[in-house]
Amino acid sequence: MASRYRKVNPSMGSLALVTTLVIITFVMIGFVTLSVITGNNFGVAGSSLNHPTPRRAINNSEIPIMGTPDPSAIIPFKSVALGFGLEYPKGWQKNEQNLQVIFAPSVSGLDLNHVQSGAIWFGIPADNTVDPLDLLVRTQMSLTPNSELLESGSMVIGGETWYSIKISYEDAQSDRTMVAIVAATTKNEVGYFLTAVSPSQEWDQFQPVFQTILESFHFTTEAVLRPTDATPPPTPTPTPTPVVHIVQSGETLSHIAGRYGVTIEALSIKNGIDDPRRLQTGARLVIPLKRN
User: How far apart are CA 260 and CA 269, in angstroms?
Assistant: First the structure.
């Protein structure tokens, strides 16, 4: 019985396989070429890694350097009279009053009788107190007679040790709880004090600013201003220059008195004239003018 199947020629099978592979290869090349032309990834995994999306170049000047203060945001202060200097934030207000200087973010903060917001001030005591502990107590009492002590100790400011306390108190005018740091030291036999205060709700906001100001504080030279200079002595009243009249020929005492608006009696007494009729030409008469 003859076989029902023809025997396949091996060479024909190999040719068919090669043809199939060639077709598949051309199809893949066409597929890749089309994806490049159209820009379509066609879901190919890893394409974003091979061709990442371009990013804008970063300018180093755009990266803020943390911890480096901006010189344009601070203002230097130096007082030869008080013997110290510091730096305070741009936009804050400053007021120098006799033996102290006050810094605050608003004009209202410069009123030490009613501090509505944060403020910090430095000064020399008018009573010439030098002992730091005594000065600390006096400064705290001048701020408020009733307070609660939160902390006490010392701090180094401007290369000197300052005795310090942190207190809280009720401001009667604003009916707000205030927090304050009071400190005192001595330098060149001169007492120095500082006070930093703000409402308790705003203390966390002001404390870093106060700290920056204190870190910039430095003594410069020996203070020129002393407590005795706070209230200068009254200017002495200058001695008035007398008005002198030289008697001319034919002038009488009555005529001279009427010219200057004084009485004959006052003119006679001032110049020791007993007899007005004996007035001599060329005599020097001091006119008794009234001064304001």
Answer: 15
